[in-house]
Design goal:
The chain is globular. The protein has helices spanning about 20-30, 35-40, 45-50, 85-95, 115-125, 145-150, 170, 180-190, 205-220, 245-260, 275-280; strands at about 35, 50-55, 60, 70-75, 100-105, 130-135, 155-160, 195-200, 225-230, 265. The chain has 11 helices and 10 strands. The protein has a single domain (about 15-280), classed as TIM Barrel. β8, α9 and β9 (about 225-230) form a beta-alpha-beta unit. The N and C termini lie far apart (about 45 Å).
Amino acid sequence: MTYLRKPEWLKIKLHSEAEFTHVSQVIKQHNLHTICSSGKCPNMSECWNKGTATLMILGEICTRACKFCNTLTGCPLPLDTNEPDNVAKSIKLMKLHHAVVTSVDRDDLPDGGAAQWAKTIRAIRNVNPDTTLEVLIPDFDGKTELIDLIINEKPEIISHNLETVRRLTPSIRTKAKYDISLRVLAHIASRNIVTKTGIMLGLGETQEEVLTLMDEALATGCSILTIGQYMQPSRKNVEVKEYITPEKFEEYKQIGLQKGFRQVESGPLVRSSYCAEKHIQK
């Protein structure tokens, strides 16, 4: 098994400031789950220092086993009925200006956790009326009545990631279907909610496939796109096939903007929640 050497542009220096330390302490004290930590996000320090964090609800064990993801997989614990209030209170304690909420997949639940999602958004709104909110949701198997439970709570942005191009989806995302994800994005956009998606590069995709994905995402009404480098989080995950240069990421950004995306974040260290607060401000 051959591993590609990580290029210099992917080597970052972590730094800690007062805001980062404060957010980190609140997360530890309240036993919160963040995709920042579990996903080993390279931008964690930068975002926490800006007063932005991505919280993960519905527990920390996912029912799916996507090949790119390092989240725990298995049989999840029962839902925590106190979770919505705890998340809302923690956002207040962290003094977040902008919160991103995501979740594991909960295929073990009849509603996939949609009702818990709605309760959490409602609680966040009640406790933090001035905090803007983005939610990064699962596909809920494309069941629009479940997605509507989240839409009805009116977060500023609803995001659902395509993750990779059509050809690679079956081998990378396991249960998820590319066309179902497109339908999820289309349904969100049809309800006049700002719609966002994200993809990873370096999994073996071609430029033609990336450009086709852009066109198909735009056709759903999606207006924000994030593009980042896939970095293998552990040896059990799929290998990196290629490290994309910063220049190529910039090229994809310009192409995406020319095609019609309102905003494109594209770079080696970009993740789906990177600079999320900018998407609200614009």
